[in-house]
Design goal:
Blueprint lengths: L1 H9 L2 H4 L2 H8 L3 H6 L5 E5 L5 E5 L1 H14 L9 H23 L5 H18 L22 H6 L23 E4 L2 E6 H14 L20 E5 L13 E6 L3 E5 L2 E5 L5 E3 L7 E5 L9 H18 L3 E6 L2 H14 L4 E8 L7 E6 L6 H14 L9 E6 L16 E8 L3 H7 L2 H21 L1
Parallel strand pairs: 6-11, 6-12, 12-15, 13-14
Antiparallel strand pairs: 1-2, 3-4, 5-11, 7-8, 9-10, 13-15
Helix pairs in contact: 1-5, 5-6, 6-7, 10-14, 12-14
Length: 451
Amino acid sequence: ESIIDLAFNKGDGAIRDNKEIIDGLNNKDYVKVTANLTQDYSVVTKANGEKVKKYASGLSKRRLYDIKNASEIFKNGIPTEVLKSAQTVYENGLKHMAAEHARGEFSDNVYNNVLSEYKGLAYTWFNGKFGEERKEYKKPAAQESENKIEQNTSKQIINSNTTATANTSKIPNGNQTVLINDKKTNWTVETLSKEWGRTAKEKLRPFKRPQPVVDNNGNLVAEVKHVPPPKGIKGRLSGYTIIVNPGHGGAVASNSNVNFDPGTSNAVMSKKNKNIETNDFIGNGGKPLEEWIVNKRIADVLVDKITNAGGKVIYVQGSVHTAMKAIRKIQKENKIDLIVSLHSNSDGDKRGIYVIGNKRGGIDKEDQKFAQVVYDKMNTHSWFKGITHKTEQSLAVLSSSASKSSPVPGILVETGNLKNKTDVANLNSRDFKNQMINSIFEGIQDYLKNK
């Protein structure tokens, strides 16, 4: 299982070209095999054609897990040779993580949490031989929050240098009547929130629904948050403003019916009616996974990376319709440089990641250029080769239509297919998500640098 994981993660060359592993397998020397499950780098081709090794802390953690997993075959405990090898991988992982932090790939808060987790897992997996017993990293009291976006924005919703945008998130009065296009419904914010919770429980969905978001009049709108960079931070994205839109996760209304829009999910569809979801789920240990929460988890980290590189983010989450309306208004009232929308798909059961450039009626050269940069970044990683596709489409959520066109270049990234078991597993993998986030983030930086 550990050998297959290494081959799946780094390609069969990671096994074929490793003489120590091949010799160990041929001679049934499983100590030797296990001690050499250590590849913590990817081979990356630079622009000049040169092939170089790119090390990553996430790969160190994955190799530690492979070594621990393979060591289950040893009845008398983990052999000394294997322990020494694992400790070397662990120590290299600490160096890689520190280097990634220094390059700005982790904010201080994220770095401390990831470091604590890494040390704690090593301590547990290898019986305290190295690593440290995990202690939860406590964020400063002023920043404590379960949700990173809420943490970064609860006290910074509006940057004083930015025009206040309509629909900016506010905490509504629970007794406030909910309106749809200025028409009253029978719902209040509180009763609608409870109804969303009830239907989620009925459908076996464990994800807590966000509270309905309304404007000053009570109309249902998308959640909009202005996230400036931390005070004093300057970086490659200083002076740029980027809209990040995790798709779905808001109210979708029809007449007086107001439902929560979770996007697609990993639910098996009914054989009798392919538009109805069953309570059986694909992958994920038979547990549900909804598109809106997948998009949000990726967006939260992407926002953190952009702001820690000096950029400002306007974060928009809601149903496709409410997000589209918010994005159109934001573009009119603010200088926006790029839009990134994150979604997952459910197109058949084939694997698929898509980078889609927005079609804007003949003025979309920059959209396709931006999409190409992100697509190229993704294809430097083994996770994405062969399953990542680039295309173009008129994207309603990015304010494109036959009569209206977004003035801002934008892309939509389909992060995977929730009807495919492998894609579902990957979207629960921190390594997979981090490589995807890094690809998008690096694509943003490179595109703006060369624009």
